[in-house]
Amino acid sequence: MRRKICETQRAAFQRGGYGCFQMQTSNANEIGLIARILAGEKELFHELIRPYERMVYLTLFSMVRNETDAEDAAQEAVINAYRHLASFRGDAKFSTWLTTIAINEGRKRLRKAKNSAEESIDEEAEAHEGDYTPAPLTDWREIPLEALERKELREALRVAVVELPDIYRQVFTLRDLEELNVEETAQALGINPGAVKVRLHRARMMLQKRLVPFLKTTAPARKGFFGRAL
Amino acid sequence: MKLDCKHVWEHISEYIDGSVDADLRKEIELHLEHCEICSAILDSTRNILILTADDRTFELPVGYSERLHERLAKELGSAEKDSKNE
To answer: Which residues are CB-contacts of A172 (< 8 A; sequence separation ≥ 6)?
Structure first.
């Protein structure tokens, strides 16, 4: 299913949430599927994994930042999930368990590529004082739906996300792209929920600062949607 | 307590997620009613999140799903053979 900017989504944002495209497969259904796969109906693994293909790829792309490597790693992660399915206990959601496997695969590849900087800065990052304030605007007008449809805006966002520092990009990907909640993100990355919130805030502010020039130039001088009243 | 802009910015992410407490939410909303700068920051941040959630922003490589399931089918096939040989 292709997700597009839609009325429902806009309304969800106006309410302060954005969960209108969350995975539809219920936990109970998944647990049933897993039991059948483990009992011998192996082909059902295709069905189990299908809703999460995108999530696995994007998680890995956020780590290795290269399409070919991300695809290769995604295949490996899915195979690993299949091989270790019996170890899934159901105390976490299947999506979180799978994300953890994908992250481990990504970390393995980063280590192999001698790019272990990602892990070494992990612990001290929160203590680092940086500039995480948003870009203030004085001539801002809320932008209409059509402006958000512009290709160059999406391209600018892709580049800005890819160029975020690793620890911020990973949290941003899991929370805002894959729509995992704070607890699930913390569990998948092996960090505490407080760190998830701090990193997410910083990531969003960095992106806001980067993208404001694009949003500004596309904004006509009239009020659009997203009224200030919340 | 009257919030200044910097204080609002610090909480903007949690405000968007709906995870600030009721009192703070009220304070932020009061501030947003008269502060165009903070309203603009809130709107622009939200717009970025909407774009992020749009599938067209982060697309999968063409044929990704097919290749993934082909590889998986091979794995399932070899697991099948292994179990028959046991």
So the answer is: A62, A161, A164, A199, A200, A203, A204, A207, B52
Name the CA dihedral angle for A132, A137, A142, A143, rounded to a multiple of 10 degrees: -80
A contacts of B49 (beta carbons < 8 Å): 13, 18, 176, 204
Domain boundary among A66, A99, A119: A119
Task: Count Cα atoms within 13 angstroms, Cβ side, for A108.
Answer: 14
Res. A28 pLDDT band, cuts 50 70 90: confident
Q: How many domains does chain B have?
A: 1
Please determine, for residue A101, whether its predicted confidence score (pLDDT) is greater than 60.
yes
Contact B35/B3 with Cβ under 8 angstroms? no
Q: Is residue A135 part of a domain?
A: yes
CA distance A117 to chain B (A): 25
CATH number at residue A86: 1.10.1740.10
Q: Is the pLDDT higher at A93 or at B64?
A: B64
Residue A185: inside a domain, yes or no? Answer: yes
Q: How many CB pairs under 8 A join A and B?
A: 168
Whether A59 and A174 have beta carbons less than 8 Å apart is answered as yes
The CA-based angle A118-A119-A120, given to 5 degrees, is 100
**Cβ atoms A210, A136 nearer than 8 A:** no
Residue A66 is encoded by which pair of tokens?
A: 């290269």
d(CA B72, CA B78): 10
pLDDT tens for residues A73-90? Answer: 999 999 999 999 999 987
Spatial separation of the C-alpha atoms in residues A155 and A75, rounded to whole Å:
26
Separation in Å, CA of A207 to nearest CA in chain B: 8
Residue A133 to residues A103, A223, B7, B30, Cα–Cα distance (Å): 29, 25, 10, 21
The domain of A88 spans: 27-119
Is A150 found in the same domain as A104?
Answer: no
Which residue type does A215 have? L
